[in-house]
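Box S1 | Example of a co-folding query
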Amino acid sequence: MTLPLDVKTRQRAVWASGDYPSVAATVIPELGARLVRACGVGPGDRVLDIAAGSGNAAIPAAATGADVVASDLTPELFEAGRALAAARGVDVTWEEGDAQGLPYPDGAFGIVLSCVGLMFAPHHQESADELVRVTARGGTIGLINWTPAGFIGQMFATMKPYAPPPPAGAQPPPLWGDPDHVRKLLGDKVSELEFTREHAVVDCFPDGAAFRDFFKTNYGPTVAVYKSLSGDPERIAGLDRELADLAARHDLGGGRMEWEYLLVTARR
Ligand SMILES: C[S@@+](CC[C@H](N)C(=O)[O-])C[C@H]1O[C@@H](n2cnc3c(N)ncnc32)[C@H](O)[C@@H]1O
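Box S1 (continued) | Returned holo structure for S-adenosylmethionine
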């Protein structure tokens, strides 16, 4: 079932706020290409990138010679995606779509992937069912999901006490980083289900405060939490402190952090 309109509108507004394309380009520029390699994308493959944002995975997929559709709930991100694709000299088809109700027939794509994207659709079984449905039999599924214990999972846990309550029935995104959860969602509809824990190296922030200020300005979910706190300086100061501390605790030296994610691959 697609998301109710009010939930959809709110989620879209969250991801359109700030500057997500600059987050992808600055913080995780290699992650989409990692997923493309893991899925073995190549010339002539018909690929769907779900929750593609500004094309972090779709663009490197298209650069292999694949025929790529980038789908996302937030078409505001496509303008940046189009510019990035043009700069790379590749063609990508950009289409608005909800991961919980994809506008494609059964088995339409040979490879379906999502880089830290599908995990943000609130009803996990519905998006998992759609992921499988649009993948051709024998086709490849690939996901990169932030884990609950990794940095972004911990960032969401840090923001939770400051955030407004989520929509009814919404499940926490980082659950998609738990192999048991993913196994249950995909069940016997896939074979060759494999999990690998890896880390994104993030070394673009000199210290915790720099990380916090960048996310506070650019990362939609963080922007939205701060917006909900406006007029409450004490809680703003509390979240400011906690986010900077979180990044400082993850600093391995010289501002280098390693953010854990789960790489999931499967055959339909
Ligand atoms: C963290 S961004 C990831 C974007 C991109 N895949 C990347 O690697 O940079 C999460 C994306 O999920 C999208 N999204 C959130 N909920 C969605 C839904 N229900 N259906 C489709 N896209 C959704 C957002 O619009 C956003 O572009």
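The longest strand covers residues 135-146. Strands lie at 46-50, 67-72, 93-96, 109-115, 135-146, 191-202, 257-267.
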